[in-house]
Amino acid sequence: MEIKKIYFDMDGVLADFERGVRELCGMESRSVNRDDDPGYDDLMWERIRSVEHFYDKLETIPEGEALFRSLYTCFGDRCEILTGIPKPKRGVESAAEDKVRWVHRILDPEVVVHTVLRREKPQYCSGKDCILIDDYSVNIEAWEAMGGTGILYENKEKTLDRMREIVNMDTKKILAACDHTLLRQEAVWEDVRQILDDTKRFSTASACISPCFVKRAKEYVGDAVKICTVIGFPNGTQSTAAKVFETRDAIANGADEIDMVIHIGSLKAGDYDAVLSEIREIKAACGDHILKVIIETCLLTEDEKIKMCQLVTESGADFIKTSTGFSTAGATFSDIELFKKHVGPGVKIKAAGGISSMEDAERFLALGADRLGTSRIVKLVKEGM
Q1: Which of 129, 285, 317, 380 is least surrounded by Cβ atoms within 10 Å, i.e. has the fewest?
Q2: Is 292 a catalytic residue?
Q3: pTM as predicted
């Protein structure tokens, strides 16, 4: 399911409100007194107002904060705070301002905070693609009655497991999008064989290896594993003829997919015809095999990235790819968002370089990447077994 919004309750998920009430206001937990004793809430808010800088003294719930940061990494500004405030007679303006200030101090000044009367929370629900994470079952029930998706917060891991179920972003889906990669100069056949074995074991999209190993790899795995290799790697400064020869040789040796590096100098010089012509020649050499075009985003301006989206679309190549992993930086979330906005229909996106966590992988896929070039994800899965 595509997620539109993820709303977090503040008190009880992010902020240790009950401990604050107990230690700063001298009151027992409110959890058993919510709707059963309205007078309790009146007294509670009166005492909160009597405590100078109550929210400045409020501690976080470490697991809740870690949960928010984890999902914020994946879903960005789709994560917002939706927190209850007292009725106007209980000092609504002060509570609202204090809560916003607390969120911006503890989490991030850019996080959007909605402060509403608790019974008004369901008004923010626009359908199944809106998720509420709350520690109060009554709020969850009201949210789901409006057609939304509710998650009753217990702890970080249970909530993340539930999120993965909802968005179907499980480990198998992430692995299926990975080009399991080994392109180190010092790699030997035993290293490559391990990559091939892991690719088969974990059903990744392909094994991405250096051209010199392609023939032996194909003989080793047959059709059980897709073999991806690189052309003009990592600088892209070979002649077009040399790249075309490399492509034909790789395919003759058994490569299923080709990742080529553009000549960045031609792009920088504004020689767009040369860039386009080279991609087209290599695509012709690929035939029905998949071609991914590496543009090395860390060396480009935003305008140059947008131009490459247009050229890759026009060329007939299958993918645009961020990086080699051998330059100054790898894939960024903002680059995937830009690609998604500017590539044409039918052009897929590969993020590569620096993808080192499951959270990174989940967010790249959520933003629109179709493939991930990484060696780290399989390692993480193996370490977790």
Answers
A1: 380
A2: no
A3: 0.62
